[in-house]
């Protein structure tokens, strides 16, 4: 009876939460959160968007925790593994650029569903690979799942008011990216579970990868009937004039256009139009680069972090080789001899095991539980006090800390300190992602999908570059890779000076600060 009463009490609380109405603006966008609610359309879309991105991210990197076992079965070199990591990112660049306009045309729900199903199918058949080329092709096809980020961000941009859209985008993006850490835990657990059921390790990794593929396909189908595209309902059922009106309404929070500025002449308007579009292109280009310096770094690190710990921290005096390892034998005459014996371990000199390295690497992705959201909250806080320049200032602070901690991590020589530093730079990498997409909805509100698509693709383009550099350093000095990343991030951070949002730049933060102080004095 006690259990039944408790369940009834919980159900009443849940019903009460669902019954609460969400305050909306003139466009039907939510002006507040009710995290525990699944109410349609706003909170249902919120939870659907992040969870779909979460399972997409988990499946996208599902192969990575099992790479040591796959490498052992197929006899792959470090560089062959690195090339497959590059392949997993390459497809996502094209997909993200294409997905933005598709979201503008069809809405986020159908686009998300198509990506989930399209990327999960090759994952299910990944057990058929027989060599390094096969691994590259499969990971290239699975990379379609990385495009799920764009409908995820588009969804919340369509559902939430401009005052909290930074936090909304950061929450769904961060909780989705959490899959990058979760996959190192769940895939390792599934691998071990399948082995406990009687399969050998080479069959176990193949079966383990089928499970997330089935889950992703299932949710790809389910969301078509359980969520909405926008506050007005189904995107495709809206008439064209209404949809155009909805797109135009996105721009209501943008600074007044030239058409509304009575002081401008017709020629002046045309000149303003040209310059605004020039700065629009420059701003998008800068954000593309900078997203490559935060999300690109995260993606690249997700593909190498477990391997980095395996390669970096080795036993003293051990000569690593995929085929051979030095062993010492004691004969019956108490004579010590050294022989070369074959090893089936691809990392015989590593202090860590595959499971331990994966567990450590999972900490990097698991920081997304709060880190990316903190970036959005940080940006919203600065906007509240310093307007749009405040968002740019928050962005600069996050990226500066990211670059500094990347450089510090590259110098770490002990595992405990390396883990602590990794968590620190992970925090700021993901906060930088949140601060980036807190700016995106303001760039060109009438075409959020296109802007989000290009900026999102910049993240994967950056990851492609970073993984290519890793390919050339993995056999010589992998620590130098993190040093170079830190330097690139600090240099790219300077480009924030070129960003123009609503005709303001970062140095206008001083004007906003003075205005805020005057307001406080008057009050």
Describe this structure in words.
The protein folds into 2 domains: about 35-230 and about 280-310 and about 350-520, Growth Hormone, Chain: A (Up-down Bundle), CATH 1.20.1250; about 315-350, no CATH class. α2 packs antiparallel against α10 (about 200-225) and α9 (about 180-195) runs antiparallel to α14 (about 355-365). The protein is an all-alpha fold. The protein is globular and about 65 Å long. The chain contains 20 helices and 2 strands. A hairpin with a 5-residue loop joins β1 and β2. It has a two-stranded antiparallel ribbon with strand order 1-2. The model is unreliable at about 240-265, about 320-330 and about 335-340 (pLDDT under 50). The chain is about 70% helix and about 5% strand.
> Over all CA atoms, what is the radius of gyration?
25 Å
> What is the element string, with H for helices and E for strands?
HHHHHHHHHHHHHEEHHHHHHH
Number of helices: 20
List low-confidence stretches. Answer: 239-266, 322-332, 334-342
CATH architecture field of the largest domain? Up-down Bundle
Strand content: under 5%
Helix content, binned percent = 55-70%
Keywords summarizing the entry:
523 residues, mainly alpha, Growth Hormone, Chain: A, two-stranded antiparallel sheet, 20 helices, 69% helix, globular
Summarize this, please?
By secondary structure, this protein is mainly α. The chain folds into two domains: 37-228 and 278-312 and 350-522, Growth Hormone, Chain: A (Up-down Bundle); 314-348, no CATH class. It has 20 helices and two strands.
